[in-house]
Amino acid sequence: MIVAWFYSRFGLFPVETKLVRETADHMGLVIPNRPDNTMRQAKCKGQTLYKHVGGGWQLTPLGERYVQQRYEVKRGNAIFKEEAVFEDVLVDCQPNKEDADEVALPRPIVQVQN
Description:
Elements: H1 2-10, H2 17-27, H3 35-41, E1 43-44, E2 47-48, E3 50-53, E4 56-59, H4 61-71, H5 82-92
Antiparallel strand pairs: 1-2, 3-4
């Protein structure tokens, strides 16, 4: 879900596990202890969803299609700046002006299917 959110903002780029951990902590999400292993082993129809690029993990073409369909997002085109990531999260989580009791969560939101 975190990678899908980055993809919807910044498009394709190698996401480092440190950034995934920091973002999860900042957003209050629980993630596996080893997100790098999760990305290494993530597959759809027997094909990998991520490839190791530099010090991070980048979506493969199949991974892109998977994220687009699963989380209903489109490829973003903003320029990635690590120091601005948490500012984006804070802006996305600001209370809705119409109803101060509701909080607008960052997209994409995972919907639980029964």
